[in-house]
Design brief:
- By secondary structure, the protein is mainly beta.
- It has one domain (about 40-310): Porin, CATH 2.40.160.40.
- Helix content is about 0%, strand content about 55%.
- It is built from no helices and 19 strands.
- The strands form four sheets. Strands 1-4-5-7-8-9-10-15-16-17-18-19 form a twelve-stranded antiparallel barrel. Strands 2-3 form a two-stranded antiparallel ribbon.
Amino acid sequence: MHRCTFLFLRRVLCSLPLITASGVLAQAPTDMQFVPSGNICVGVTGNYSFWDHYWEGDTLRINGNVGTVSRLQAMGGFNLGLHDRINLIVMLPYVRTQASQGTLNGQHGFSDLSLNVKANYAQLALGRSSLLIGGNVGCALPVSDYLVDFMPLSIGGGTVNLSYRQMLKFKLATGFYADAKANYTWRSNIKNVHRGGFYYDHGNAYYTDEVYVPNTLDYAGAIGYQSNRLLAEIGLTVFNTLGGSDIRTWDVPFVTVNSDFTTGYGRIDYYFAKPRGLNFSLVGGQTLSGRNAGKSTYVALSLNYLFALWAQPKPVQ
């Protein structure tokens, strides 16, 4: 069965609910499925998220100056099998943001191009079950001159990101599985922001146009079932910014904000018998708890197609 699922898990499907709710592809940097050598999976994803409550520090608020903040994202990408156990994944999103109240205008445009190399390090047989061990090295950088200092309506963080993700997946012969992953992301400084200074380290003021942006750590776990035609999964993602400050009372967020949140999600994939190689994926979720983050709800739908380039078609591993 030719299988590819070009939707979900990121760098977090919900991403940063207050800063960027980017949809992330699956059968991509965050799972242990691999496109075989000489094959390619191309996909498009639509992702919609919204929130009208947000945590200012650990206080949940409603702000009539913005009302409901929504984010609509369309993303295209591909997953190329360089080897049966090594994949190259490229993704580019187009984002549009909007506030239902107040005078702030939403933003739109291409956000950050991401490139990832994912590898299957080992597959250990445990009776009729197996343990898969893999990792992913990724980078992301802005491709347009979007306005960074305009949260929560900016379309990206403006940083160059370098990341490494470690992944484990335990598969039973019955089709049930459990997986776990952890990802560390280094983020570059930002220069020439539209202000003469900023607050960091619990309110300390820095008067410079170069902003230090804290790095992040996220980790996730999921359980699910997979057959030749169907995949069903539920999971939990935890995102932690390693430093930064709380949003000041009734102030707008900034790129140095200490944004932490936990998101629960569900996912369903369906793989068509004809045309062979076609599948769709539906994901939805909710931010369950947070700090300096929007209480976001999201849904994402992707359509994907797997076909051979320079090799005979093979099923996804």
